[in-house]
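Much of our argument rests on the idea that a fold can be written as discrete symbols. The record that follows shows the chain in one-letter code together with its fold in token form.
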Amino acid sequence: MYTVAVDIGGTFTDVIAIDGRDGRAVMGKALTTPADLQKGVMDGLADAAAAIGIEVGTLLASADRMVHATTQSSNAVFSFTGARTAVLTTRGFGDTLTIMRATGRVAGLSVFERHHYRATAKPRLLVDERDIFEMPERIDAAGEVVTPLDERAVRAIARTLVERGYRAVAVAYLFSHQNPVHERRTADILRAEAPALYVSASADIAPVMGEYERSATALFNAYVGPVIDSYLARLERTLADAGLRQKLLIVQANGGLATVAQTVPIYTIESGPAAGVVGACHMAERLGFRNVIATDVGGTTFKVGVIEGGRWSYSAQTVLNQYQLRLPMIDVASIGSGGGSIAWVDGRRLRVGPQSAAADPGPACYGQGGAEPTVTDADVALGYISPDRFLGGRMKLDRDRALDAIRRRVADPLFGGDVIAAAAGIRKVVDSQMADLIRKSTLERGYDPRDFVMMAYGGAGPVHAASYALEAGVRRVVVPFFATVHSAYGAAISDVRFSLQFSEPIVLPGSAERIEAIFAAMESKGADALMRADIAPERRRFGRWVEARYRRQVHQLRIAAPARIDAAAVALLIAAFEREYERLFGPGSGLADAGVELINYGVEAVGVVPKAPWLEAPAGSDAAPATRRPTFCPRRSAMVETPIYDGPALPPGTSIAGPAVIEHPGTSIVVLAGQSATVDAYLHTHIATGLAETGALHG
């Protein structure tokens, strides 16, 4: 009856339960418990069950789908708490991971950080030379065996790894994407000789060109593998003991779901933000929007995903701790700007983030020991968040603590003791940082923000969206009714999805038959994966893509590929690549005489999941403000008496002129002076930011 989804964030664990019969939904929310994430999960489930009026066991027993987006892989990577890992590589190539790429010192850093090049360094190593073992074997670029694998050496290494206490091993041989026979035989021997070792073969995790990227991806998968496997196994047992009868489904970074048995650990990285983009894409389709900027403001980060023409994009490369990986991952840009981001003084400058108070100890206003001023503390001080109605009144905030933290750390050093001016400064800085990331994700990729609707979600997204959308040049913002648990909603409606990849350079027009054979082989593997995930044939869908480049260039572009490749389809691929190239780099920038080369190929094997219906809320008259309180008005640079509305009580068609605050359990929607908000038939809130067609402010 219910689809239940859980998303663990840096500060809160979010839950949504959707009744598959009529689409009615309830949310649950609990503080994330870093010491034992399962506790936060069960607390959130209990909160959702209470909203329905049933016990947790009853909710789980009546769930026909149970979906989970986890932060465990992210936590292990960023806190360096993964398993002790070894690497097996081809003899003579033991330094691949430590040499990295030439950009290894600056990969993933901001422009500001790159400018201080002398202060940059290569990242902290997950493994060093003592953990890397060179194996006697060699396959050439054509996939031919040059030196056979020495199986006795593999057995000896297996014993060595056990004796030295390794828990995981990554196998990354040269050109394994062309011929994986040595890697897979090595993996078989390791599993037989050392069953307790977690084995990650690069040909299975990232079968694409790029020796370094393939090796790094296999390494990271091995590093987080034992952590993820242990966590998911324990969570499955806990949920089963509590009443769950269905398979637990795990959100992947590609925006799809997989069973626990089919989950590739590193593919769960940033699964929550990916689910948020999926949810935004689904909502945009239902509301009739084709171009959407999805923005998620959580407790620790601000994330942006771009949906263009009804489709999200995938990142060609993922950077984790300055390592460059090849993962099937929705393209989501992020910075350390969230509700828990700490404001601090750098000389005579005010900075916000990337340090975060997270869930423990949390912002000063939480009263849990946090002493640093955060964005949430500033929002409380400015009146945008009610201390008495946070999380629907279930969690009381301490405004005095927020004011005191801001005064000590920011107001006294920079604002002459003016706490409100300091809080407004914190908000201005963080909103500008968010707007900068939006511009980077749109303008730098050839998109005009004025052509997009913005969707704002996460606990702090609706509080700040009217500000950062205005600064970024967006005319309309949509705040989902369940904005505070939107990523959990996205997880609930996600399809099962397997992303397959393959590399083989082919200069077009090349051989259409060979290209079709590559796709057909991947589609066969995808069909097998969908079958093992219990997806019926009539619900299986396949999408193709290629990564192409002009010959002798190094930058590749991803474009959709036709469902059948023949000579005509090859011509269409060339034309599509040239259009996309000139869209990104300008008319006339193409190099048609150079010729087009296909490098990587991919198939998205999708198992479509039925979606619950959307219910239109009954019409009603405009609701009056529930109360009034002072909030900060940027236009007047002062606190002004502001109407406060009870969000869940507002009927469709309600129109509200700013300044105003619309309070929902878990978040508040801030509408600034000169802006207006309306409630649609599904209770989502639409904000007109006040930008005219020219981009100038009305009034």
User: Anything to note?
Assistant: DSSP finds 17 helices and 33 strands in the chain. Residues 377 and 402 are 5 Å apart (CA to CA). The chain has a mean pLDDT of 91. The two ends are 51 Å apart (CA to CA).
